[in-house]
Amino acid sequence: MRDKRILYIKHLMLLINIVANLTPAVLIYITTSKICNYYIARSFMGRVTALPQNPTTIFAGTAVLLTCLVISFFLREFLYTDQYQFIYGSLFFDFITSFVLMYVLNFNYNGILFWVFANIIYYVHDKGKMVFMLLSIIIYVGTDFEFLSINYSLFSIYDYMGYYDFNTQQYLLGIYNMLVSLNIIIFILFCIYVIQEQQGIIEKVNSLYAQLSQKNNELENANEELKQYADIKEKMGQTKERNRLAREIHDTLGHTLTGISAGIDACLTMIDSNPQVTKKQLEVISKVTRDGIGEVRRSVTELRPDALDRLSLESAVGNMIHDMTMVTKAEVLFTCDAENLKFDEDEENTIYRIIQESITNAVRHGKATKIWVTITREDYELHLKIQDNGEGCTDMKKGFGTRHMIERIQMLHGTVNFKGDNGFLVDAVIPIRWGEEYD
Question: Residue 229: inside a domain, yes or no?
Fold first, then answer.
């Protein structure tokens, strides 16, 4: 927003120049009329070195040229304030108009150039300013009346003032010199305000630059902290992924090897008494082994149970229980009261692996012969219980499988409790983001 003080000064400066230019034009016109009316032209001509050709033309030309300057000023200040091509064009127009105005008045007044200087100082901010200023200074020096009157015959306003009596001459001369001096003073005042305004802009720019530098430093610090956080998060992600991989391999291999171990123990018991049954049992063990190898390969590549890719969660759990029952002496009873077991991938993985790990532990460590797997839904929670009739454990030490079972459930913001006083019980509660149901 422009400083209103500068705008007021420019208005005042324009008004002073209008009066200062009209003063000699009006004085010449009125004095010439008086000389003609009183028939003293011969006496007046004997005292002057030059006379204007047509005082009326001088007055009319001065008025027209001043009107053009006023129109240019208002267009530049109020209508085309942001159109720099028009602004520069209007400044050049003012420059030419001012020169013509000085020529019409025979260079008796060249203070109008201060008006041109002021606008150049205010509006021009590039190399063009120096060109305009240099040209204006040259013209100002070159249009001095005393300098030009040495080589050219010019009429002088002071000659027309000499027509009047002494007191009137003093008043006219005082008014005219006051206008000339006031124009210079207002121009100096204008320059001071422009310098102050530019200084204020410079200080504001410096302040903004300091703030920008501070924000830049803060941004660099924040960026460095973000990099450190990203490194920490990456390491945490790597650790988390390693733990997940360890859990997947542990669950897969542990379950498969437990089934194979139990099946081989059964074969050793029956091989002498019933070779045919032992052969069938070995065929089952071979199938479980092949499935286990495929599961290990898939776990390493995808870390998701192959059965869950092919089947629903309920069917995948049923197949896994059936395979375990076939290769071990344990009887696994599966009950599911929750309809449409279809969840997000991480939820299904966790449910499947908890059942798998719990059955494996029941057979391997608890020597269980009967295992109950129960899934129920209560509001937005899934309750998962795996109870066996094995040896139990009153002083349970959390091994690799148990720790990862806890980690899996905690990742879903669930809870799990273990009881080993009557067989062994795994009691898990998982808040479920219930997925789409089967059609």
Answer: no
Distances (CA, A) of 68 to 72, 89, 95, 116: 6, 14, 12, 14
Give the pLDDT of residue 435: 46
Tell me the pTM: 0.46
What is the layout of strands, in order, in the sheet containing 415-419? 331-336, 370-378, 381-388, 424-431, 415-419
CA distance linking residue 95 with residue 98, whole number of Å: 5
CA gap 319, 82 in Å, rounded: 80
200 inside domain: no
Residues in the chain, pLDDT under 70: 1-3, 41, 46, 125-129, 132, 198-205, 231, 234-235, 237-255, 294, 296-310, 340-341, 398-400, 434-439
Question: How many Å apart are CA 63 and CA 136, to the nearest integer?
Answer: 23
pLDDT recorded at residue 276: 80
- Pairing between β-strand 331-336 and β-strand 370-378 as defined by DSSP bridges: parallel
Does residue 305 sit in the same domain as residue 399?
Answer: yes
Q: Residue 351: name the closest of 424, 289, 430 by CA.
A: 430
Which of 103, 129, 163 represents a domain boundary (last residue)?
A: 163
Range of the domain at 82: 4-163
The amino acid at 95: F
The per-residue b/e assignment along 406-422, b for 16 or more CB within 10 angstroms, e otherwise, is bebbeebebebebeeee
Same domain, 153 and 288: no
Residue 209 lies in a domain: no
